[in-house]
Specification:
Blueprint: H1 6-21, H2 27-46, H3 56-68, H4 73-92, H5 119-127, H6 134-149, H7 153-157, E1 164-165, E2 170-174, E3 180-184, H8 187-196, H9 213-217, H10 230-243, H11 252-265, H12 270-277, H13 282-291, H14 293-303
Helix pairs in contact: 1-2, 2-4, 6-8, 6-11, 11-13, 12-13
């Protein structure tokens, strides 16, 4: 942000700090808010206005300008949510008495269905990891844990050795907003984890001298003995996705989607899936029930006595 933005810049910086300290938002989330608000501040100052004096019609004018620039509805909505959140913060802190965004209706963004692959495709993917070398052990554990627990890739690479309970087959996962949750680990995933953590697995990646305690405590390491990064985890998933012909249809989040979808198809309670995935609201989890509509139609036609001729 520009140094000469004065109080405008200060309000935004305070808001971003509040998101980090008070709300525990992730760095990537804060960076997205920052980009949106920089765009907003540029528009405000470019039109000779100030954030403190904006009224509803000014904010609507900003919204119309975004729409005229051919931004997607999702981008516009995200930007406006950032602006609205800023004014809510300013109201809380007594920096403004009226929120000019309160009555503005945001563009509706249709919810897309998560992309899930079939159970057969998941099995094919896991079978594509061949051998018993350290890389194979690590990669097998990564894919098994992603599919077996529904963990996000950021959550997976953040796991430390103390987060595993090998007796009760549990993992302590640190999710969004620094909220901890305990998730069960299935037989296949726990077996893969234990094999990776043996001397013939993780032990082969351990350096003579650790660069940091963070690296030494990490469950998943790269070949240099450092904690595996989010990008590194992505690379593992894409590598085997390409091997079995899934290509762009596979990402770490795909396996999270598959975990939820396949559990619901096998009769899991939606609130159980909500807790497993760490969703704050059950409405987020409910979207997975739509993914199984083909399964519902298939089951209906097979079971209802008057469904077919």
């Amino acid at each position: 942000m520009q140094d000469n933005s004065g109080i405008e810049d200060s309000a935004i910086l305070d808001f971003l700090l509040w998101l980090r300290v008070e709300k525990g938002r992730a760095d990537s989330t804060i960076a997205a808010y920052k980009r949106d608000l920089e765009k907003f501040l540029e528009w405000v100052t470019g039109n000779g206005l100030s954030i403190q004096s904006l009224v509803e019609n000014d904010v609507i004018a900003f919204l119309r300008d975004l729409q005229s620039m051919d931004y997607s509805d999702s981008t516009i909505t995200r930007t406006m949510v950032s602006v609205r959140s800023l004014f809510m913060f300013m109201d809380i802190e007594g920096l403004r008495t009226i929120n000019p965004t309160k009555s503005i209706e945001l563009p509706r963004v249709p919810k897309g269905l998560p992309k899930a692959i079939s159970e057969e495709e998941v099995n094919e993917l896991l079978a594509a990891i061949e051998g018993d070398d350290p890389v194979a052990r690590r990669d097998r554990a990564i894919l098994e844990v992603l599919y077996g627990t529904g963990a996000r890739i950021t959550e997976l690479v953040s796991l430390s050795l103390g987060d595993i309970d090998p007796i009760d087959h549990l993992l302590k996962v640190l999710g969004k907003g620094n909220k901890e949750r305990i998730v069960p680990v299935g037989t296949f995933a726990m077996r893969a984890l234990k094999e990776w953590l043996e001397p013939a697995g993780r032990g082969c990646f351990e350096p003579e001298i650790w660069k940091s305690r963070n690296d030494s405590e990490a469950i998943f390491l790269n070949r240099r003995g450092g904690r595996l990064t989010r990008q590194g985890g992505w690379g593992v998933v894409k590598k085997y996705g390409a091997k079995v012909g899934l290509g762009s249809n596979l990402s770490p989040h795909t396996l999270r989607h598959c975990c939820a979808t396949h559990m619901l198809e096998h009769g899991a309670d939606i609130r159980t899936v909500q807790e497993l995935l760490g969703h704050a609201s059950i409405t987020t989890t409910q979207i997975y029930t739509k993914v199984s509509r083909d399964k519902l139609i298939e089951s209906y036609r097979a079971a209802h006595p008057r469904a077919l001729l």
